[in-house]
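All the exercises in this workshop are built on plain-text protein records. There is nothing in a record beyond a sequence line and a structure line. A learned vocabulary of local backbone shapes supplies the integers on the structure line. The question running through the whole workshop is how a given chain folds. Here is such a record, shown just as it appears in the course material:

***
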Amino acid sequence: MTRALVFAYHDVGVRCLQAVLEAGVEVPLVVTHRDQPGEAIWFASVAELARSRGIACITPDDPNSDDVLAACRAAAPDFLFSFYYRRMLGTALLALAPRGAFNLHGSLLPHYRGRAPVNWAILNGERQTGATLHVMDAKPDHGAIVDQEAVTIGADDTARQVFDRVTEAAARVVARSVPRLVAGSAVLRPQQHVGGQYFGGRKPEDGRLGADWPARRLHDLVRAVAPPEYPGAFFDAEGVRIGVSRTHVVRDGDGRPAAAGARFTFFARDGALWIGAADGGVLQVLQATAGGAPLDAAAFVARWRDARLQPDR
């Protein structure tokens, strides 16, 4: 029977590991992560799936350590798969699988190589992304493509909504690809790499709303980092942190660069909260907080009356 070593985490890891098992591949060992303290764990557990299937599962801090390498070698895999595993796998690990090592990435490669591909795609206003299974080599998200599938990004979709679609697409890609890989009939397509396709990781501070951004970019950041799954978008005004969790574009701006020193305004009117962007666009704010407490139009008026708040920076 064909054997595969699987490195996996998150919903994508669970669904893709299931697809490998359903394809009749034996998985003697799963490598995953321990959940991090303080991280919002809104996704399914690879470790729990492995335990339910009687599969040995380890959670090393360093997957490239000698101990892990020895355990993986003892598993005698034909293939190695990585499904949303968060650490780079060294060439010594990749070389353990004589029939190839493959990674599932949450974008339409070669676009959005690197970290947080779904979040970056939304932030950049893309209207589609997807899932790609590709050959693993020494560079991240770099090797030839086995298969990929596109998913749509709606104008108001949050990162969680898009990620759920990517997860479903990932499971279908793996279900299609594993039998072809096992049979030796998969056709690989080299990636065409150009500059500007790689994106780095994101931090909570990257959720700060730019004071002079156009309305559409403000909206795209809000939905790209929407809580509770992600840290959320925010700005500081009058010493208070205002969190903005959901918005809707009521009017696009003119698209021209904002005048020097221009900043958006945040205000209450007609029983709702609004952002007037520096480019003239308008967002309705559907969900917000002030200092961590829920904020609606009534609470805004009680605190700031008819003021138009502007970000401190």
Notes: The longest helix spans residues 159-183.
